[in-house]
Input
Amino acid sequence: MKPVMIVAGTRPEVIKLAPVLRGLEKENVDYLFVWSGQHYDYLLSQIFFKEFELAEPKVDLKVGSGSHAMQTAEIMLRLEHTIKDYSPTVVVAEGDTNTVLASALVSVKCLTPFAHVEAGLRSWNMLMPEEVNRRVADAVASLHFAPTKWAALNLLFEGISSRTVHVTGNTIVDALQEFMSRVANLSDGVLSEYGLERNNFILVTLHRAENTDNHERLESILKALNELSQHYPIIFPIHPRTRNAVARFGLSKHLSRIRVIEPLGYFEFLALLSNCRIVLTDSGGIQEEAFTLKIPIVTLRYNTERPETTLHGVNVLAGADKDRIVKSALMQTERSEEIRKLNFKNPLGDGKAGKRIAQLLRDIIEADLTVKEPDLRDTPMIEYRLLNEGSSIEGSSLFDLLVAFDEDGKPTPPNLKGSSSRLLARIKSSFDDKDSSNS
Output
């Protein structure tokens, strides 16, 4: 039996793929774990494979750092050889990194189905490298594991076939359910180490290039942090890119009142996150984690690909405007207890996403999924039609169902249970059919 190939290259990818790997093991699905080495030296990466109790990758591509183009190209070149050597049934990658982009492109070029975990997220900001990566990956994928209904709808309205889209939940919820008991045991020690009181400090992360590489934005954010430090202690595990930018722009003076520390291990970071009053961040993953833990969030961005996190006001978008950051942060600190007591069903998932994805991959292997060529010799025209539910369309004419609409006109994936009054479909038709429809 040919294996499933799982490709990752950064720590966030490993965190979110860990539940999938465990699910594959429970389903007795043979898999091959490939490490691109996008962000971390392999020896350093061994630490968090052990932390998450995962077997080390069988293949290390050893790509390392570089420009977006260089890194993506190197992963593609090396991964192509790996795919040819192992002939996987499907290649799986998670998220929006250069590793994901390269995995998607080289898989389809090798005529191997590509499965995208966390498909359909959209920030609508094409200045973000991650937005480009996720859109391209989704465009060529044979399988889309969307974390939420909103993500699935993004895919469907981009013309992705509903047959390939599966709403699975977000695997970060699985990971948190598994790891938080370990984090609880660490919390007292971590808080004591940094002299912090539970629910009485602000946690900050900042790493995105649009913030760190822009002098004006970075200074505005740091000035906001300096002002907020008059109200609460602030701890700031600083990313190397951010530290270098602060030094390059001469902005160290704005950090004089802030506890700046080196980046933390995942469990130590979760100990701070779960015990802070609020978190200020530009990270997508931390928005998900904080939302799931019901920690108030101020996002230092002008858009988010995780709009679900803004439900109930748990997350607010402040951008890089100093006054708005301060106002939003103080508002969230006032609402901290209220947000922690909120009772709602987590739209990000129920903690079973990894299991669902593994079961879907098992079924796909058994069905022998391949990249297929459509036969359109007799029906070369593909058109879009809005159909009434129950419309009689010949099976040979229906190419794809895309999206359903309820009586209020709200869209929903057509594979979800529920009433729908109209369906958007791709229809195969000949030139003669097209001509007659216009007569």
About this structure: The chain has three domains: 4-169+352-367, 174-340, 381-437. Residues 171-193 form the longest helix (23 residues). Residues 174-340 form a domain with the Rossmann fold fold (CATH 3.40.50.2000).
